[in-house]
Amino acid sequence: MSTDMALSVDMPLGFGTTDDVVNQLALILRLLYVADLRALQTQANEIIASCQALARSALDDPRANVHLGRGRHGR
Question: pTM score, two decimals?
Answer without folding.
Answer: 0.60
